[in-house]
From TrEMBL:
Required cofactor names: [2Fe-2S] cluster
Family: Belongs to the adrenodoxin/putidaredoxin family.
Originating organism: Parapedobacter composti
Keywords per UniProt: 2Fe-2S, Iron, Iron-sulfur, Metal-binding
2Fe-2S ferredoxin-type domain: residues covered: 3-108
GO biological process: P450-containing electron transport chain
Domain of life: Bacteria
Key word Iron-sulfur present: yes
Name recorded for this polypeptide: Ferredoxin, 2Fe-2S
Length: 108
């Protein structure tokens, strides 16, 4: 039996939606958000080169892998990025992320 990873997504307008992603799907959070219809540009295609997939982690930051130097360099280019900002392309989905709550930016 495959368990689902539940991610709670809040939009800039304050609306929330729960995504259920099958464990073992081997995608990044950016890929799942794009496939779910969120306005994530991901201009560089997930290479941590553009920061257009920036999210803020509301709950569950401790369950994420540490920020890489490349990701930190891109986040440093954003004037409104904070301690909880991450690039969705750099977050691989795994069971320990179950219950993660994030905020996406864009037109959703």
């Amino acid at each position: 039996m495959t368990d689902n990873i539940r991610i709670i997504v809040e939009t800039g307008q304050g609306e929330t939606q729960q995504l259920e992603i099958p464990d073992g799907i081997n995608l990044s959070l950016m890929e799942v958000l794009k496939a779910s219809g969120y306005d994530i540009m991901a201009t560089c295609g997930g290479m941590a080169l553009c920061a257009t997939c920036r999210i803020d982690v509301i709950e569950g930051l401790e369950s994420l892998e540490p920020v890489s130097d490349a990701e930190l360099d891109m986040l440093d280019t954003l004037p409104d990025a904070g301690e909880t900002s991450r690039l969705a392309c750099q977050i691989r989905l795994k069971p320990s992320l179950d219950g993660l709550k994030i905020r996406v930016f864009g037109n959703n």
